[in-house]
Every structure is written in C-alpha cells, then in structure tokens.
Specification:
single chain, about 110 residues, Arc Repressor Mutant, subunit A, DNA-binding
Length: about 110
DNA sequence: AGGGTGACTGCTA
DNA sequence: GTAGCAGCCACCC
C-alpha cells in the first residue's frame, strides 16, 4: 500500500468527481480542497499511486494547457492523455491547448 | 531534520 | 504574442 496522505486523498476524490467530457484546472481543484497552492495538487497527481482509478487526465492548468500525465511533461504520454480527452469530447490542439474553454467545469 | 523540487499561478517587461 | 521572476503548498531525497 502506498502512503497516501489525507491531502492526496482529497485530490483524488475531487478529481474522480469530475464528470466525463469536462475538465478542471489545478487552481479550481486546489480551491475546492481549500488549498492555496495548485502546485501541491499537481504534486499529488504526479505521485498518484492510482492513475487509472483517478481521471487525472481531466485536470489542466489555468491557461487551458494540458499539464502532464504519469510524470511525463512531454512525450507520447501526453498524446495518450489528449486522445483520452478527445474520446470524452474534449478536443485539444497540436500545442496541447484546450480548444473549447466551455469544457472546463468550474466549481 | 533540512533543503530542493515541481503535472502551478500571476504579474511585469 | 512570448519571456522571465517571485510566491505558494506538499512531497521526496
């Protein structure tokens, strides 16, 4: 068993609450868990012990830009994340930017 | 126990 | 529009 902390549990819970076809920003997520730092949220997702259980691919940054996936900031993993989002109806451009900002589910 | 890092954000040049 | 700097919280070595 991984040593998941309460903070990470909150992050995973909040992320798993994101409906399909929608995405959320690290800032909104951090605010949702009452955390003043989105970087801490990213840290939890980067070290996420349950990647397939948590739709971490539905989390993007404030600039509507894709963050990363399974610790890969660049590479094929990013393309896979983009593909997953495209399957849910969220389309991204070649630069990894969200095309339809309305897909962002703000709390 | 301490320091450095990071899937971030916001402002300024 | 891009580029650089500082601030923030939690985790890892």
């Amino acid at each position: 068993m991984s040593k998941t902390t309460a903070f990470q549990q909150r992050v995973y819970d909040a992320v798993s609450q994101i409906p399909a076809g929608k995405v959320t920003t690290y800032k909104a997520l951090a605010d949702s868990i009452n955390c003043g730092s989105a970087q801490a949220v990213g840290q939890a997702l980067k070290r996420n012990p349950n990647a397939p259980e948590v739709p971490c691919h539905r989390v993007i940054n404030s600039q509507l830009n894709i963050g990363g996936y399974l610790g890969e900031t660049q590479g094929a993993s990013l393309e896979k994340k983009r593909q997953l989002l495209a399957e849910e109806g969220v389309e991204f451009d070649v630069g990894g930017r969200l095309i339809d900002g309305s897909r962002v589910a703000l709390p």
